[in-house]
TrEMBL record:
PROSITE patterns: KH_TYPE_1 (PS50084). It holds the Pfam family DNA_pol_A_exo1. It comes from Rehmannia glutinosa (Chinese foxglove). Keywords: RNA-binding. The keyword RNA-binding applies. This is 3'-5' exonuclease domain-containing protein. Residues 31-201 form the 3'-5' exonuclease domain. InterPro entries: 3'-5'_exonuclease_dom, KH_dom, KH_dom_type_1, KH_dom_type_1_sf, RNaseH-like_sf, RNaseH_sf. Residues 337-405 form the K Homology domain.
Amino acid sequence: MASPHKTHIPLPPDPGDKPSENEACLSTVPIHVVTHASQLPAEFLQPSSERQLVIGFDCEGVDLCRQGTLCIMQLAFPDAIYLVDAIEGGETLVQACKPALESSYITKVIHDCKRDSEALYFQFGIKLHNVVDTQSTSLYTFVMGLCVCVHACVGRELFSGENFVAESWCTIATIALSPLAFINLWIAYSLIKEQEGQKRVPDDYISFVGLLADPRFGGISYVEKEEVRVLLRQVSFDFLLCLLDVVVLYVIHDPNFWTYRPLSELMVRAAADDVRFLLFIYHKMVEKLNERSLWYLAVRGALYCRCFCINDSDYADWPALPPVPDNLIADENAPEEETLYVLDVPKGKMGCVIGKRGANILSIKESCSAEIFFGGDKGPPDKVFIIGPVKQVRKAAAMLRGRMLQMY
């Protein structure tokens, strides 16, 4: 049965095609709401080395972590987007997806997999594997970022129909709810910059809008930008306040937003928008990465998946990390192995570790080529997670231990 929901996915041009200047090929695809495994593609349910896949992936839920509630898993294929309804389909449906989520034959492109992986592992016993991870900026950029997103991130398809104004406001609300409006492929982007001879800066990032506009990586030109500017000039301040009220209602005052059934048009659009650009950006960026950078991308994805999934087996039940390729080992400038280290922080010492306004952490990040994460309110509490090259991780851990000894 045909899906009533549709969206547009930008696709990279075929290798033999002559690329248009700063243009992406847009494909209209259906959005399927899945409540039974039979509605999913067979090649996804039965991973095979003969038909390897790359898909966009994300999860939505309530307080998503080892507790919380998984509500939807989004799967973006080149010809369709599938919203796997974990509420209606239950554990049986989620378990049907387990072989694909754990398979090395299916690459999952996702932004910030750490909490999603934690929820899948502790609630369903699924070890998310073979991930290309993107990193999201904080939602504190919402107020500043909303105007940018309205100008440059509204889907192209909305500007070609008769319902331009009405559909545009619906999409603005969708964008406000969509973390994709603020994501950036920080890892892959920084690797490309590093290959070009630029120094990689800690916590440096490119916005999703900037990534799409950059002809090297996205190259999607938004010819309707001036139309949006004109439209925005017609908007009253009161309307923008009303829009903000809607966002606050859904995001802050209604934490159960993703549990409601049936899925509303806004929920379907917001879920689809989180994954519909991922395949395009993945292909555009991966074609520019060398073997060293591809290995780095793979091993960091594996470490992010493990990050909050700490257990007594010290990750012995997880797939092995991607080894350094043999030809890179022989290189005089061979990359160092990457690792994840979990540092226990004594009760009452977390303030010493973080420092006033995060000053200690910022200082350590500037001194070490390592990433540092905290469990925060969702936990695990009193632990610091450090990811990076082995020597840099050890250095960061030693500096953090030194901070614990200081008076706060």
